[in-house]
């Protein structure tokens, strides 16, 4: 962040009659205290992150009040036009604010403050020798003015100017106040730039993550296609089936990355949307089995928990296709995703079930002692994600359930 400018000695026109440092009157002291209060309030407003345009209006309003002046304006430097636009202000009408410009050359007080960084006090504009009085001020009958630079993002943003029609003089305390107000605005500008950069970096990162997930999904899809080709070319039935199952497992992981690049975040995904995709693949030719899927939408689950669930479902559906209907051509699996029960923790626990109405498990079947890779994968993933794995013998058929907390216990 750029260091706000200290107030250099102001450029003041010679005024032989003026006492350089008269003792402050009671009302002058009261005004200085008021100025301090207003600066403090402006600082708080800027820190709260008020929208920048509102902060410009607020600064102009409070500055005019603190300096007991009728006019105040924030001038924004337009480098291509080399002019200063009245961006916000008080005392000026709608024909001026957002429309009128003043010259930004060294002959104008505002231009001088902009180019030299020095505050300018002009207490007798009608007698001013150093600067040309801008038409805007002359038309409004302004007699005295002060200008300070408004630091922006690297380059100056413009100038903060206060004008008065009344007699009297702006002094060094007034210009110090004005520079203080301009510094607060400058810091708000810097802060906005940081926030913009941060938002842009986050957006870039999110785009990058999407891109990465898209590529991972495509690469995995390529591996799936190759395994499927290899399965198609295999002569032995067992090899063909094994290659087909391997392709399904990889496709299941690919679908997670597809969900992730559709999302705005990568930490979680919608479990039912993901398992819906996986079941569509499994039913769409991978297993020669119809897969009926029904899942509660809106269950956001950590990605690294969703993938093991989906891999377990893939194994269980593959088993239904392989074993539940040895004779029948019409094979069917039901996959469900639901919140667990109606208890107090129902919102935090979920149940995934894979069921069939087929032949049922072989006598003496025991998950823990099953030699097949499928059951070992399911049991290992269940323990990894803290899920209770259960088998229910139905008549007819079988149902496997995984019940787990949505978030892992700490
Ligand atoms: N839905 C089901 N209906 C009937 N039997 C089943 C069902 N699911 C599993 N089984 C039985 O459980 C056994 C173990 O399954 P598991 O998935 O562990 O091994 P696999 O399918 O034989 O081999 P792999 O998974 O390594 O290809 C199967 O051999 C089968 O007998
Ligand atoms: Mg199996």
Show the helix and strand layout:
Layout: E1 11-12, H1 26-47, H2 52-66, E2 71-78, E3 83-90, E4 101-103, H3 109-116, E5 120-122, H4 135-139, E6 144-151, E7 156-164, H5 172-233, H6 237-262, E8 268-270, H7 271-286, E9 290-295, E10 300-302, H8 303-324, E11 332-339, E12 349-356, H9 373-384, E13 388-393, E14 398-405
Parallel strand pairs: 1-5, 9-11
Antiparallel strand pairs: 2-3, 2-7, 3-4, 5-6, 6-7, 8-10, 11-12, 12-14, 13-14
The structure holds adenosine-5'-triphosphate and magnesium ion (MG).
Residues 245, 315, 319-320, 322-324, 356, 358-359, 361-362, 365, 370, 372-375, 398 line the site of adenosine-5'-triphosphate.
Order of helices and strands: EHHEEEHEHEEHHEHEEHEEHEE
- Note the overall shape: elongated
Number of DSSP E strands: 14
Estimated radius of gyration: 37 Å
CATH H level of the largest domain: which superfamily? Answer: GAF domain
Using the 3D structure, state the CATH architecture of the largest domain: 2-Layer Sandwich
Biggest sheet strand order reads 1-5-6-7-2-3-4
- CATH structural fold name of the largest domain: Beta-Lactamase
What is the CATH level 1 assignment of the largest domain?
Alpha Beta
Number of helices: 9
Overall pLDDT score: 90
Regions with pLDDT < 50 over 5+ consecutive residues? none
Would you kindly provide a brief summary of this structure?
With 410 residues, the protein is of the alpha+beta class. It contains nine helices and 14 strands. It has helices at residues 26-47, 52-66, 109-116, 135-139, 172-233, 237-262, 271-286, 303-324, 373-384; strands at 11-12, 71-78, 83-90, 101-103, 120-122, 144-151, 156-164, 268-270, 290-295, 300-302, 332-339, 349-356, 388-393, 398-405.
